[in-house]
Write a structure and sequence with these properties.
Helices cover 31% and strands 25% of the residues. It is of the alpha+beta class and 749 residues long. Among the domains are: 90 residues, Immunoglobulin-like (Sandwich); 365 residues, TolB, C-terminal domain (Neuraminidase, 6 Propeller), CATH 2.120.10.30. The chain is globular and about 100 Å long.
């Protein structure tokens, strides 16, 4: 099972564990024999289990013996210690290269599923740095970072480390630092890709960045939009790829950002750029077709694609592919983008290009679709100028990605899930002809139940980095970490991080506001009001605080005060969707239908794909006796979310009770209400009441009476006797049989 036949080890690697399976049912003991090619008498060791790890001294001897010529490793199976009767036998050949790796590895270690790590990066994400000779996981140099840290890169000359981090409220923050024993990432070492702006003021992540070979420039993706779908499974717990973006360059000497001509076409996605060793050429991934930018998405703030837009890819089978392109860097002036033969126009997705240190080869990933964490991703090699793509021999059956060349160009490290759902690091030797060997796993490099990814060789001494200190952290970092927990339904973890934010900054109004919102979610309304009132006192210009206070006051039934707080939130931020939504809801509750319509219409303008805005607007229009417009809004709600139960109920009532015969449709009302009952398990009294009304409209009075009775029972079971009485009164005296002339005998209460 491991090592694979023909595997070649670097001379400095720590001892592996040989593992095998034996199908012979009687075998309970084995003997391992190792002999260099041409030698008859091997070295032998006995085993009581189907695995064997040589001692450090013995492994050094095996590597010496297999360096000039391959060694044959034979496993022989016996039963009960009887060496006279061989029951099973198999062998492989292994070798040891004369080429050292010659550089330490820097990589990220993360818990799975990935959403667990995202919610609490301080606990679940850390970075290690060390040599492949390590018999234990290399030292942790960075951990307990309460914000996300992602792709990193080293300058080829060993001078610089660059790394994506979240700083404050800036998702585009990026750290660039000189290599030192203790690297302190303070605010002076943080830039922001968000500082790159063009006419549309588009927000940005600044993803998949890479520092230039001499450390002067950084390439990154800006004006980007990414699709992220999290799954509960371990192995492939995230679908993440860019659907929009251009390349930009940051010049560290001039402290200036600029788009890179030739890779700045907004009609396509341009990302995942890499430098040639001489810094003169840029190779990047570009989408095969136009960027994904449907009309409704253009009104959505932020850089993450909302889930409803992601469904065509995550559930509908829609593909998204990339080709590799090349342009000259030309001191940031760029040039004409040209597809690279062998890594473009092949019907596949091509991404993650990496030049060999001598500039001779490019190794890249190929998969059917997408980018990042693809089960079918495999490594291919082409000449740097393009040509026939050859599949590397090192590929495993399950995901091959995140590769990096050793500085001497003799070895490639990459990530794979060949042996575990938790990604492991593998090495393969690359010869002068671009041929690779079967992979060897760095089994000691990660702790159990941790995935290793984004490995990179650094051309520095193994002890060059001992610690990375995130000195840029402030209260906003802890707030954002808390928000991740809150939106995943874990308020206690969120509150703990809001407390930490207030330890750093006791005047943090946003920490107080979000803590109060958490308490409101838990039904602790009085505590929530005290915290958010403090937030308003500390920062009277914080719109989110006024909005949160408005929600709390509404919950306490103080609708007039709630309305004033929400109005103040909108004075401070006229495009605040949540404030418009709740001001519309509160105005409806107060009977101020014109103001309710105004604000809910604004919600649908600001986010046309938001079903909640359309639903509430439909409710207000129905109450204002404008059934046609109400039905249109409720239908739009169901276009966005076909399973939106309140909209199904409301539209059913409109269809069943409208005085306008062109709108009234009893059969359609029955269908809508029946769907609402199905989705709620026929336990929702409002859904059952709507069904009873619809059935009465179609003349099914017996069914309507029975359904109404179930609705009243459901209301009492839910602790709402008032609703139960209303339902019973509305359906009193309903005929128990179906008359020939179908005419509704009930008005919806």
């Amino acid at each position: 099972m491991y090592p694979l036949d023909g595997a070649v080890f670097p001379p400095e690697i720590a001892a592996p564990t040989f593992r095998w399976e034996d199908g012979h049912e009687l075998v309970d003991q084995w003997q391992v024999a190792v002999a260099p090619y041409g030698e008859e008498e091997p070295m032998r060791w006995d085993c009581d289990a189907p695995e064997w790890t040589p001692s450090k001294k013995l492994w050094e001897k095996i590597k010496r013996l297999s360096q000039a010529r391959p060694a044959r490793v034979t496993i022989v199976g016996y039963h009960g210690g009887d060496r006279r009767r061989v029951l099973s036998r198999a062998h492989i050949w292994i070798g040891t290269s004369e080429d050292e790796v010659g550089a330490p590895l820097f990589f990220r270690e993360v818990n799975l599923p990935f959403l667990t790590a995202v919610k609490d990066p301080a606990l679940h994400i850390r970075w290690r740095f060390g040599e492949i000779s390590s018999e234990e996981p290399p030292p942790v140099v960075l951990d307990k970072l309460p914000v996300c840290g992602n792709c990193h890169s080293f300058a080829a000359d060993g001078s610089t480390l660059a790394m994506e981090v979240d700083s404050g409220n800036d998702k585009g923050a990026y750290a660039i630092a000189s290599i030192e024993k203790e690297i302190v990432l303070d605010h002076d070492k943080i830039i922001s890709w968000a500082a790159f702006q063009q006419d549309d003021q588009a927000k940005t992540f600044g993803l998949l960045c890479q520092v230039s070979p001499n450390g002067r420039y950084v390439l990154g993706t800006v004006k980007d939009r990414a699709l992220a779908v999290y799954r509960p499974e371990l192995a492939f717990s995230q679908l993440f790829f860019l659907v929009k973006g251009i390349l930009a360059v940051y010049d560290r000497e001039k402290k200036a950002f600029a788009a890179l001509p030739g890779a700045d076409d907004p009609e396509y996605v341009q990302t995942n750029a890499t430098w040639s060793p001489d810094g003169k050429t840029i190779v990047f991934a570009r989408s095969c077709s136009k960027a994904y930018d449907p009309p409704g998405l253009r009104n959505v703030e932020g850089v993450l694609v909302p889930e409803r837009f992601a469904r065509p890819f995550s559930e509908g089978g829609r593909k998204f592919k990339y080709d590799l392109y090349r342009i000259p860097f030309n001191e940031g002036k760029g040039g004409r983008a040209e597809p690279i033969p062998g890594a473009s126009n092949n019907g596949m997705s091509n991404y993650f290009p990496k030049f060999s240190p001598d500039g001779k080869w490019i190794v890249f990933c190929r998969a059917e679709s997408f980018m990042l964490l693809q089960p079918d991703s495999e490594l291919y090699i082409i000449p740097a100028e393009g040509g026939e793509a050859r599949r590397l021999r090192c590929n495993t059956p399950r995901m091959n990605s995140w590769h990096s060349w050793s500085p001497n160009g003799k070895w490639l490290v990459f990530s794979s899930k060949a042996y575990s759902d938790y990604t492991q690091l593998f090495l393969t030797h690359i010869d002068d002809q671009g041929r690779s060997t079967p992979p060897v796993v760095l089994s000691n490099f990660t702790e159990k139940n941790r995935a290793a990814n984004i490995p990179e060789f650094a051309d520095i001494e193994p002890d060059a980095i001992e610690k990375i200190v995130p000195a840029f952290l402030d209260d906003s970092n802890y707030v954002r970490a808390g928000d991740a927990f809150r939106f995943q339904g874990e308020p206690e973890n969120a509150i703990e991080l809001y407390r930490k934010a207030l330890e750093v900054n006791p005047m943090s109004a946003i920490a107080l506001t979000n803590w109060g919102s958490c308490l409101l979610d838990q039904g602790k309304v009085d505590e929530a009001e005290r915290l958010v009132a403090r937030a308003v006192e500390h920062d009277p210009d914080l719109a989110t605080a006024h909005c949160a206070l408005g929600l709390i006051l509404r919950q306490k039934g103080r609708l007039g005060e709630s309305r004033e707080s929400l109005r103040e939130a909108l004075r401070l931020d006229p495009d605040y969707i949540l404030a418009h939504l709740y001001l519309g809801i509160v105005s409806n509750q107060l009977g101020e239908l014109d103001e309710a319509e105004t604000h809910l219409t604004e919600v649908t303008r600001l986010d046309p794909r938001d079903p909640i805005g359309h639903y509430n607007l439909g409710v207000v229009l129905a109450r204002a006796n404008r059934p046609h417009k109400a039905a249109a809004q409720l239908e739009r709600t169901l276009e966005e979310d076909p399973n939106f139960v309140p909209a199904l109920i409301a539209l059913s009532i409109v269809r069943a009770t409208s005085p306008d015969t062109t709108l009234r449709n009893g059969e359609e009302a029955v269908r809508l209400a029946a769907r609402a009952c199905e989705l709620t398990g026929s336990r929702d009294p409002e859904a059952l009441r709507a069904l009873a009304v619809a059935e009465a409209e179609t003349g099914r009075f017996g069914s309507a009476a029975s359904t109404a009775q179930r609705a009243a029972q459901a209301a009492r079971a839910a602790g709402n006797p008032v609703l139960a009485d209303v339902i019973e009164k509305a359906f009193e005296g309903l005929p128990q049989s179906e008359p020939a002339a179908r005419q509704s005998k009930v008005h919806s209460p």
